[in-house]
């Protein structure tokens, strides 16, 4: 091997290692076949943990206010407000209220 080729060997080995690590990570991150195929990952998280969606709000304060009102009125015991895309692909983010009894 020429000295020039010897200098390239570490770069080739590092690149191959990154490629292999990337494919292994993709296999681990793939969803299981048992779970439903939701439209968003946030929806998937809510379905798995029995959180139910309630309403959409323009700002976090309005979402939290509605969450506290529902809690006070006995509609639910816990709530979460998440900043999510309301219509897929339209970049229209709003606050989504989820509740748990």
Characterise this structure:
The protein has 2 domains: 1-32; 40-101, no CATH class. It has helices at residues 3-29, 41-48, 60-72, and strands at residues 52-57, 78-85, 93-100. Strand 2 (78-85) and strand 3 form a beta hairpin. It is built from 3 helices and 3 strands. It is elongated and about 80 Å long. Strands 1-3-2 form a 3-stranded antiparallel β-sheet, sandwiched between helices. The chain is an alpha+beta fold. Helix content is 48%, strand content 22%. The chain starts with a helix and ends with a strand.
Read across the widest sheet, the strand sequence of neighbours is 1-3-2
Structural class: alpha+beta
Write down how many β-strands occur, each being a DSSP E stretch of 2 or more residues.
Answer: 3
H/E element sequence: HHEHEE
The N- and C-terminal alpha carbons lie at a distance of 69 Å
Tell me the major beta sheet.
Answer: 3 strands, antiparallel
């Amino acid at each position: 091997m020429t000295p020039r080729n010897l200098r390239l060997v570490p770069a080739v080995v590092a690149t191959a290692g990154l490629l292999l690590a990337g494919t292994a990570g993709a296999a681990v991150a793939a969803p299981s076949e048992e779970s439903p195929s939701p439209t968003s990952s946030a929806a998937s998280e809510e379905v798995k943990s029995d959180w139910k969606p309630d309403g959409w709000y323009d700002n976090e304060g309005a979402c939290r206010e509605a969450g506290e009102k529902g809690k006070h009125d006995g509609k639910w015991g816990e709530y979460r407000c998440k900043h999510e895309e309301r219509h897929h692909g339209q970049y229209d983010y709003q606050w989504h209220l989820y509740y748990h009894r």
